[in-house]
Write a structure and sequence with these properties.
Layout (H helix, E strand, L loop, with lengths): L6 E5 L4 E5 L6 E4 L5 E5 L5 E7 L14
Antiparallel strand pairs: 1-2, 2-5, 3-4, 4-5
């Protein structure tokens, strides 16, 4: 079985975290949480997500449905 790889990138100046499950073309769309955007491919499959204003999330865990 091939191992799964995840790309994680954090921009300290932009206070932005990005996690990609797959390297494919797609676009970001809003979720129910204003801090989180999900990246989906042309068929609507989730291929990653981003978290904006990460430093504001210190007091409680972040939970969102993708």
């Amino acid at each position: 079985m091939a191992e799964k790889r995840v790309k994680i990138w954090y921009d300290k100046e932009g206070d932005y975290l990005e996690v990609m499950f797959e390297r494919r073309a797609g676009f970001f769309r809003e979720t129910a949480n204003p801090h989180v955007m999900e990246k989906v491919d042309e068929k609507g499959n989730v291929i990653g997500f981003s978290v904006m204003r990460v430093s504001a999330l210190r007091d409680a865990p972040l939970e969102v449905a993708l």
